[in-house]
Amino acid sequence: MLLKVGELARRSGITVRTLHHYDAIGLLRPSARSDAGYRLYNRADIARLHQIQAMRRLDLSLADIGALLARPDSTLSTVIEQQIVALTRQIDRATDLRDRLNRLRGQLMTGEEPDLADWLTTLELMTMQDKYFTHDEQKQLRLNKADMATDWLALIQSAHGLIDRGVAVESAEAQALAARWTAMVDNYTGGDPRLLSRLDAMHRSEPSLQTQSGITTELLAYLTRAIRHSKLDLYAKYFSPQELQRMHDHDSRYVAEWPSLVADIRREMERETAVDDPVVQRLAQRWIDIVNSYVGTDPEAHRKLQAAYDNEPAILAGTGIDRDLLAYIREAQLTLQPLQQQ
């Protein structure tokens, strides 16, 4: 039995464009073509497609999947074994934490007097970071932070000083500090929007971390307003005063949802997900919805925003958005309408 690409797409839940993309990169080539040139897939092709989709669920990139399928000794079981190894590492980290807690309990039960405050704070921060970052991510963040620890402390103190003195976010002093903050956060996260999103969520959600680090909700709100002001100044080259006022009044959703959306888009880019894949299509629609809430639905306003993105690098500084991501999401937006392809 041979299936045309459209029928295979309907029965598998995979889009036609995705199947075309798999063919173009050599990941899944149809075994035959009809006299009219239509792709035809046989049982072996469908079995290979099953393997590809199963591996995608294990967060492997298309390049990794292709390499695994090209190896004669590689089977789906070997992929699952790799995932088991990763899970084992997570279990080992949890076991290590449990052992640390048992040692602490043992000290207390024998009457020893460890520095309880420091010990518990360390444990709290360890488990807190485990909720947001993998072991490798924590290691990379520690390495990044090691080179800037003193600068971080000074910057946080300076920010609190501005707040205590009532310095306006529009002031040159606050704008300079906001620019330094953006640059340091970018260096700390390596420009990775996924780390930025989770770092922001951690600092906003963990009161004990705010107390220890000095990065309080008040400080984050002050810096957010300062950064927004600097970007609105750049947008003023493209938008009218009335349009800028709308952006100022409607940017709460833009600020709140943008980091996680950018992180999700970056993840799909690294997975090499086709732009017409349902996951990417949903991300493209989220992008449009947020932009609509920010600048309105007028196509001219969208063109102005696109021009600002293209011509003002400072607007995108610290956001994780680059030209490749913009090109990817714009292409995805063009495929939002249903496609009819052979």
From TrEMBL:
PROSITE patterns: HTH_MERR_1 (PS00552), HTH_MERR_2 (PS50937). Keywords: DNA-binding. Residues 2-71 form the HTH merR-type domain. GO terms for molecular function: DNA binding; DNA-binding transcription factor activity. It comes from the Bacteria. The keyword Acetylation does not apply. It holds the Pfam family MerR_1. This is DNA-binding transcriptional regulator, MerR family. It comes from Paraburkholderia phenazinium. The lineage of its organism: Bacteria, Pseudomonadati, Pseudomonadota, Betaproteobacteria, Burkholderiales.
